Amino acid sequence: MSRHDLVDEMDELIGNPEERMLSHGVKPTSSRLLVFRELARARHPYSIKDLEDRLLTVDKSTIFRTLTLLLQHHLIHAIEDGSGALKYELCCGHDECTLEDQHTHFYCEHCHRTFCLHDTKVPQITLPTGFVAQTINYMIKGLCPECQALIQKKIEMF
């Protein structure tokens, strides 16, 4: 899937940010809309630091409070990629993040970026009786294509 296809798909899924927030019981303030729109533009999950670097007019505590609120109202979900910082991305569904919205993530151990692999679904598993899954964090770690090519080039030089 190309970046343009992904952006078009996200625009179609997100719809009007103000309406989306209101439908989830969140008042669409200017700061909340800035955070929401930045996550919508993102090509990969963002940490609080990533958002802070991009939203220079919004302080860190406002970003944190906004992310917490958006998480509570199922507008975004958090990803633990092993880097020590949670990463955030928009939920694709309009009602709330469901297990069907979950997709595989890839963490590059060289450049430390996290990628969404939207077309790679999380494998289905059967849980023991009495267990109910509410979220899934399926993370693959290794080298992204860019870093793999860079390392391969270095190896060929020697």
Structurally, how many domains make up the residues?
1
What class do helices, strands and sheet pairing give?
A: alpha+beta
CATH class: Mainly Alpha
- State mean pLDDT (0 to 100 scale): 84
Any idea what the shape is? globular
Q: How are helices and strands ordered from N to C?
A: HHHHHEEEEEH
Low-confidence regions: none
What percent strand? 15-25%
| Sheet with most strands | 3 strands, mixed
**CATH architecture level-2 label:** Orthogonal Bundle
> What is the number of helices?
6
Radius of gyration: 17 Å
What is the topology, as strand order, of the major beta sheet? 4-3-5
Query: How is the CATH topology named?
Result: Arc Repressor Mutant, subunit A
CATH superfamily: Winged helix-like DNA-binding domain superfamily/Winged helix DNA-binding domain
Helix percent band: 40-55%
Polypeptide structure, described:
The chain has 158 residues and is α+β, with helices and mostly antiparallel strands. It has a single domain (3-157), classed as Arc Repressor Mutant, subunit A, CATH 1.10.10.10. The protein contains 6 helices and 5 strands, in the order αααααβββββα. It has helices spanning 3-14, 17-23, 30-41, 48-54, 60-72, 145-157, and strands at residues 76-79, 87-90, 103-108, 114-121, 139-142. Strands 4-3-5 form a 3-stranded mixed beta sheet, with no helix packed on it. Strands 1-2 form a two-stranded antiparallel ribbon. Helix 3 (30-41) packs across helix 5 and helix 4 (48-54) crosses helix 5. The longest helix is centred in the middle third of the chain and has 13 residues, at 60-72.
